[in-house]
Specification:
The chain is an all-alpha fold and 112 residues long. The chain has one domain. The chain contains eight helices and no strands. The protein is elongated and about 45 Å long. The model has no long low-confidence stretch (mean pLDDT 92).
């Protein structure tokens, strides 16, 4: 599927839920598609985008502000999440997000 085909199917709502999950999960998915999927209404799709190693830093920054706790936890699980975001998420109001930050190798020592 080309990016143009994806955009058309996504805009029309004709892309299946399963296909969106597969694209969000696949590390070979183009950055442009991951960026679009990062704004999907479904938290499960956004969480897979947040975990994807190909997701650009700018998108991870946006997903770190997501209202859904699972999406923010997924951001902490991505090794490409910048230290600034990891440091910010260690102060998150949700205990599970704070605990998840500890497992990210970008977490500075003494900030857990």
């Amino acid at each position: 599927m080309t990016i143009k085909e994806f955009k058309m199917q996504y805009a029309l709502g004709s892309l299946s839920y399963t296909m969106k999950i597969e694209l969000a999960y696949n590390s070979n998915t183009p950055i442009e598609i991951l960026t679009i999927l990062s704004t999907d209404i479904d938290w499960y799709i956004r969480s897979h985008v947040a975990k994807n190693s190909n997701t650009p830093v700018e998108t991870l920054i946006e997903l770190s502000k997501d209202e859904d706790n699972i999406v923010r936890i997924s951001v902490t699980e991505n090794f490409n999440t910048p230290i600034e975001i990891v440091t910010k998420l260690v102060k998150d109001k949700n205990i599970y997000i704070r605990e998840s930050v500890i497992n990210n190798p970008n977490t500075p020592k003494g900030k857990e």
